[in-house]
Amino acid sequence: MKHRIVVLGAGYAGANAAGRLARRLHRDDVEITLVNGDAEFVERVRLHQLAGGQDLKPRPLRDLYAGTGVQVRTARVTAVDVEAKTVDLGGETLAYDTLVYALGSVIADHGVPGAAEHTYNVAGKQAALRLRARLSEVTPGGTVLVVGGGLTGIEAATEIAEAHPGLKVAIAARGRVGDWLSDKAQRHLRGALDRLGITAHDRADITRVEADGVVTGTGAKIPAQVTVWTAGFTAHPIAAATTLEVSDTGRIIVDAGMRSVSHPDVYAVGDAALAEGAGGKPLRMSCASGNPMAWLAADVIAARLTGRTVPQTTIGYFGQCISLGRRDGILQFVTPDDQVTSTVITGRTAARIKEMICASAAWSVSHPTMMMPSRRRHLTATDTAATRLPTRV
Predict the structure, then answer these.
(1) Are 143 and 222 in contact (CB under 8 A)?
(2) Where in this chain does the entry annotate a coiled-coil region (predicted)?
């Protein structure tokens, strides 16, 4: 009987994990099933572009994995039973021997009244399309407010301002917009905001969202015909409903090999996992974390199933890329544990580098059989809980 590997979610992490497993393991010995709610791979790092009015290249998952041995199932995951080792797909049950959980994250409204009812976001394709449609309805001079001064907020605000120059765009942050960046990067960011006519509301703690704007902790009102919420993400809630050991934010706690510390037949990657990176710091939710987590998890699974040495590595960072519209950007270099350095690339060069990184990430998913490693090995060993790596968050 073939060893059944089920991968939940075909974002960057899940899609890369499925492809790498197919390259590592012999298809005579394993059955790999990739489950995703959308029939296409969606470039989440480009959803602000989709919201701004650009069209993304369609990437049907069945086409991407044709001939790889990966079976693609278009279905919504409604529950996971890690004791019975089954996944519920809306009434249909799918059994597994090894599960790779990569369901990612959803928008977090932090319980702010009105946020769920009166805001738009770019956390998913359909959400970005809804925002795109709404922006097309706003007449010149209309107001758009982006709540959140992090990477997603900055990219959304600058993209919308560039794509809709007739709108009045603002961005609000609890601290200072981009305040974690180096001094040089912050100066460039402020220049870009000024160039695009974006008003920055720093130290604006949003306590309520209304149909025509937001209210801050001081009682001040910031008017907006369209409010875009980018104030954080939280793990998809399905994991927290299982007996998996999760963090207080619902992320699956994993060891140094991306393996659940409570259930050795479950691996978690991407935004769904709480894993240690360089310096013992938790990896942040990002494509920069998800891809290497997926590669490592796939290599660990393959090594255990084929009786080979389990790889041990520490995931670290090199930079944070921020697009400021299509022709400007910031590449903020960081230490492996994600601390900013004084080295920064800005302007068109940074924009080109960001585009190259985004394109290469999509290419790796779109060409699952062309990436290394490509040697498929037969299963020769039975994985046991005793082989778990001890490191945990």
Answers:
(1) no
(2) none
CB 260 within 8 A of CB 235: no
Q: Residue 147: which region, alpha, beta or left (left: phi > 0; alpha: psi -120 to 50)?
A: beta
Residue keyed to tokens 């207080």 = 248
Q: What's the order of all strands across the beta sheet hosting 221-223? A: 206-210, 213-216, 221-223
Q: Please state the pTM of the whole predicted model.
A: 0.92
Q: How many Cβ atoms from other residues are within 10 Å of residue 341's Cβ? A: 11
Q: How far apart are CA 241 and CA 359, in angstroms?
A: 35
Q: Sketch out the chain's domains with CATH numbers.
A: 3-106+233-317+372-387 (3.50.50.60), 111-229 (3.50.50.60)
Distances in Å between the Cα of 379 and the Cα atoms of 3, 266, 274 are 9, 18, 29
For residue 327, name the pLDDT band (cuts at 50, 70, 90): very high
Which of 320, 366, 364, 326 lies closest to 345 in space, CA to CA? 320
Tell me the pLDDT tens digit for each residue of 145-195. Answer: 999 999 999 999 999 999 999 999 999 999 999 999 999 999 999 999 999
- CB 349 within 8 Å of CB 327: no
